[in-house]
């Protein structure tokens, strides 16, 4: 049972919008890396679609322990165990040399096992400090979901699950998880963790921007390019993918994008009229 579903990160949504509405030459962030991570997490989520009914699944938790924040990609509360999963969508060949992780090109990356261990330690302390979940044992795993990922020199005792091992690994967890009805302690812990979740603002990691300097128009939600008028007055069409969308739907979606990028501004007819640009009749926007 999913207690906290995964949604597209607001930071990713905002950056994709800015990627289109700002001159690409001046972009100072990498949307692709965030998108790739999110897609990997969604890929891992799909493996839990047929999970046991007595498993409670919480996605994208951001928690705080003694003023130190830590993130959990996927958390599963089983009958007697809590499983923490750090999901990686790495692609290519990597090797381990002592405590160092390197690509085959020699580029060193932050050791993800150390990151996992810090997350597990912070979570254990969080449970202890709040006197919750004492009846559950905790285990944490680093899961690589990309089939084009290869890791060399990995010791067998590392908490790593490689792409070719994922299905067998999850089947093993199901096998050793007693098939018992969902307990009140499971549900209580899940609700407590959801209540502790921190809604992180995406704006701290965005570049500076303002309304006047952004390109105006309505963006295709599939291709991330600006839509144009179609033969039908009631629809707009994407010049890239050819998909059409009702004007009313386009305006409402654009208003939500405006609200995301400018939470301090009021949604007025004038603002949305200028934001959409392609809608020539202001009264039409007012009716929507």
UniProtKB/TrEMBL annotation:
Recorded superkingdom: Bacteria
Cross-referenced Pfam families: NERD
Domain NERD: 36-146
Protein name, as recorded: Nuclease-related domain-containing protein
Species of origin: Evansella caseinilytica
Lineage: Bacteria, Bacillati, Bacillota, Bacilli, Bacillales
């Amino acid at each position: 049972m999913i207690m906290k579903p995964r949604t597209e990160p607001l930071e990713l949504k905002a950056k994709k919008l800015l990627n289109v509405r700002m001159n690409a030459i001046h972009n100072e962030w990498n949307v692709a890396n965030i998108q790739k991570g999110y897609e990997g997490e969604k890929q891992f989520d799909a493996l839990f679609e047929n999970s046991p009914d007595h498993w409670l699944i919480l996605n994208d938790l951001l928690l705080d322990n003694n003023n130190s924040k830590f993130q959990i990609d996927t958390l599963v509360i089983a009958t007697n165990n809590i499983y923490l999963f750090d999901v990686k969508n790495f692609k290519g060949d990597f090797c381990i040399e002592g405590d160092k992780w390197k690509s085959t090109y020699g580029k060193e990356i932050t050791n993800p096992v150390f990151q996992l261990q810090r997350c597990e330690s912070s979570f254990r302390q969080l449970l202890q400090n709040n006197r919750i979940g004492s009846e559950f044992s905790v285990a944490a795993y680093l899961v690589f979901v990309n089939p084009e990922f290869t890791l060399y020199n990995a010791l067998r005792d590392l908490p790593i699950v490689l792409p070719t091992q994922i299905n067998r690994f999850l089947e093993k967890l199901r096998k050793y998880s007693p098939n018992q009805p969902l307990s009140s302690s499971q549900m209580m812990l899940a609700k407590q963790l959801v209540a502790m979740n921190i809604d992180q603002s995406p704006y701290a990691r965005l570049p500076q921007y303002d309304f006047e300097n952004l390109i105006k128009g309505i963006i295709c939600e599939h291709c991330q390019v600006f839509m144009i008028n179609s033969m039908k007055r009631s629809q707009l069409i994407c010049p890239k993918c050819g998909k059409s969308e009702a004007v009313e739907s386009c305006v409402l979606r654009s208003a939500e994008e405006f609200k995301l990028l400018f939470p301090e501004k009021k949604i007025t007819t004038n603002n949305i009229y200028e934001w959409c640009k392609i809608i020539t009749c202001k009264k039409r926007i007012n009716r929507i």
